[in-house]
């Protein structure tokens, strides 16, 4: 609930998870956990979030205008997040090339690479879950089709149009 609202308002503002995290002073993975509702922001963080997104705390918790999962939007967000990471890496590389590299410059570059790797791993996991879900649905559809086929075959095999049900074997008369 809160996660869907946070996702919708963040996207409405055109912010990536990383951009919102930077403005809040938290890790991008923290924002991702909030949106997936694996964790919840603290009261002070909720206040900061509502201020940054230009809405009241009540709007953030409102149940109206629920957000549905939109694969295209998810992919656009992933591309945006990765682009943001690439731009951050480019800035660090330009900084390094303009002067002698320090260990903190190299750490900045490692941090942006780790964030990009984490984003790719999250997307891989989401795609894997969708593939598994689709495979389960296909198997379920096949099982249902087979059951319906067996049911229709049984009805056709055990019935006779003129005499009702067909009985195989001797009939004992009184």
Multimerization state:
single chain
Largest sheet descriptor: 2 strands, antiparallel
- The portion of residues forming beta strands comes to under 5%
Order of strands in the sheet with the most strands?
Answer: 1-2
* Helix-strand category: mainly alpha
Count of extended strands? 2
Give an overview in words.
- There is one protein chain.
- The chain is an all-alpha fold.
- The longest helix has 56 residues, at 103-158.
- It is 73% helix and 2% strand.
- The protein contains seven helices and two strands; from the N terminus they run αααααααββ.
- β1 and β2 form a beta hairpin.
- It folds into two domains: 1-68, lambda repressor-like DNA-binding domains (434 Repressor (Amino-terminal Domain)), CATH 1.10.260.40; 70-158.
- The chain has a two-stranded antiparallel sheet.
- The model is unreliable at 65-69 (pLDDT under 50).
Short description:
The chain contains seven helices and two strands. It is mainly alpha-helical and 174 residues long.
Q: Main traits of this protein?
A:
434 Repressor (Amino-terminal Domain), 7 helices, elongated, two-stranded antiparallel ribbon, mainly alpha, 2% strand, 174 residues, 2 domains, 2 strands
Please specify the SSE layout and strand pairing.
Layout: H1 2-12, H2 17-24, H3 28-35, H4 43-53, H5 57-61, H6 71-98, H7 103-158, E1 159-160, E2 164-165
Helix pairs in contact: 2-3, 6-7
